Amino acid sequence: MDKATIGGLASGVALLVIAVFVAPGSKFSAFWDTASAAVVVGGAIAATAIAFPVVALLKFPRVIKKTLQPNALEAAPVIAELVGLAEVARKDGILALEQKTEEIEDPFILLGIQMAVDGIDSELMEELLRTEVDSVAERHKTGKMLLDTLGRYAPAFGMIGTLMGLIIMLGNMDDPDAIGPGMAVALITTLYGAIVSNLVCLPLADKLAYYSKREVEIREIIVRGILSIQQGDNPRVVEQKLKTCLPADQRGSDEMADAA
After folding, report:
1. Is the pTM for the entire model greater than 0.90?
2. pLDDT tens-digit profile of 197-224?
């Protein structure tokens, strides 16, 4: 579970609620209107459904899950695992890795090792692995587009709801006492649109983009590592190749000294 995402959402909602309660003369009930919420949320979802095919929409729950439960892989442990596999291949031969497949948890590493054991040509293997990486990046891109689209349409429907409220209010100008409350209800819809967009949809889209970039980078490390193992590189060489993908402060003391 991504604590920053949950904490950020909870903090944002809490700040808004606190602001309502501490503002002089404000009432919490004045900030809730079911019709306004329906216009913003329902309208944004409807517009997004028009913009995307059903296949993409059905994957939306997985998109949300990705922002809350990202891939747990980290670069350093992945490099350590690949170096360990390189040591086995260097010592006992590439076919010895077949005995290690049951210990490999990550499906992408397992796929690459199985192809290496099967003796697939290195160029073909690289093409297949990079195609898989591109496929993951494309799926994440579609997910971000979904969230961006929701974030773009929510304020628009907030404005639509406000215009609807103003029309209703102006149609009842014979009652001066209803003008103030009517204006307040009309503006609530704009508020809802801004909150849904800027507190939920757009931040989640940015979080998904961050995790997508990180996952693609780690998969690129895996591709380089597996190709290096297949070529029979020394485990030390494999380690040095892969550590160049890490920031200088994560590469180890030798390379940190070089970087300095």
Report:
1. no
2. 999 999 999 999 999 999 999 999 999 9
Confidence of residue 259 (pLDDT cuts 50, 70, 90): very low
Cα(90)–Cα(9) distance, integer angstroms: 49
Contact 22, 90 (CB under 8 A): no
DSSP secondary structure, the chain, as one string? --HHHHHHHHHHHHHHHHHHHHSTT--GGGG--HHHHHHHHHHHHHHHHHHS-HHHHHTHHHHHHHHHS-----HHHHHHHHHHHHHHHHHH-GGGGGGGGGG---HHHHHHHHHHHTT--HHHHHHHHHHHHHHHHHHHHHHHHHHHHHHHHHHHHHHHHHHHHHHHHHTTTT-GGGHHHHHHHHHHHHHHHHHIIIIIIHHHHHHHHHHHHHHHHHHHHHHHHHHHHHTT--HHHHHHHHHTTS-GGGS-HHHHHHH-
**How far apart are alpha carbons 49 and 149 in whole angstroms?**
10
Per-residue pLDDT tens digits for 135-183: 989 989 999 999 999 999 999 999 999 998 888 888 877 777 777 777 8
Q: Which structure tokens are listed for 208?
A: 């998904």
Cα separation of 133 and 160, whole Å? Answer: 41
What span, in angstroms and rounded, lies between the C-alpha atoms of 100 and 204?
A: 37
